[in-house]
Amino acid sequence: xxxxxxxxxxxxxxxxxxxxxxxxxxxxxxxxxxxxxxxxxxxxxxxxxxxxxxxxxxxxxxxxxxxxxxxxxxxxxxxxxxxxxxxxxxxxxxxxxxxxxxxxxxxxxxxxxxxxxxxxxxxxxxxxxxxxxxxxxxxxxxxxxxxxxxxxxxxxxxxxxxxxxxxxxxxxxxxxxxxxxxxxxxxxxxxxxxxxxxxxxxxxxxxxxxxxxxxxxxxxxxxxxxxxxxxxxxxxxxxxxxxxxxxxxxxxxxxxxxxxxxxxxxxxxxxxxxxxxxxxxxxxxxxxxxxxxxxxxxxxxxxxxxxxxxxxxxxxxxxxxxxxxxxxxxxxxxxxxxxxxxxxxxxxxxxxxxxxxxxxxxxxxxxxxxxxxxxxxxxxxxxxxxxxxxxxxxxxxxxxxxxxxxxxxxxxx
Length: 413
Known about the structure:
By secondary structure, the protein is of the alpha+beta class. It is 40% helix and 23% strand.
């Protein structure tokens, strides 16, 4: 006789559900606790370790860029087109290559001692001091920063950004250990490798920018939640190596394999202007101090993860703009002396010419004023004569009609 299977007790199934529910809640609590501990309150890596890691990554990127340039560089015999003039009046000097320039300036890249650049530090300090003075006039820098932070590029989840603190610092950068040496970056022309000046830069100061804003959560509906955020970022120290090079103007014509390629004078050539290029080597170091305050009532202060995100963003911004292999180019104006650029006291001859010119302008203005007054006087006399002739005509008309002239609407006599 077969034995019927007994159903499982209901108490056991209820206990299994309770255990699963409690286990799920416990897992969620553990995940939230781990997120808060390691993501929000986790200790950031040491500044030395972070700086070395970033420098290594920049150096690897720089080496990769140089290898790509060397792979795609043109052969040594190639040369851009050169304008050749048929005139014998303008004499062209021999081509000045990099070794010739160094020899004529008595500069030996192997034995020349680095320079201190003390005089240049004084000029830079005066320029920065004047910039700080101009920035505090009429709160110009505050208005500019507010307009930039609230431009169209601001994310939609941020409310209006208010600048709460601006400090431009009190110290000045110190440049030292300047040395000049040729650098072959794959773009060397027939004149040889270009010359590059490298100098050490060190700035120890506190340059601060503080802002306040609100993070707006617009999902699942607009203004679902609002989180106030206050942030203050300070640059504590910057140290690195600055490289400066001179880029002369050059034609953009197609290069040719023949070294004696000539371009006729009637053929127009587009040229790049003379510029000054500068950049920082990848081993620079930027130390920041980030203060944060999140929340309205229960506030979280100085969250390490926010500081790490801000530092990474600032380093990426600098790397994308002025860290090798990327450079910043500043177009140089014409240095040829011109009269319109002259400033200072006038000489005796120029002073006399200036006085005569001032007297001539004064005489012309006086003559014009007299002509205007004469025209106004003649106009007044002409209007007076017209009024007198009109009144005389009315009197003759009234006599011809046998009575006095009556004004329209007057009472009968």
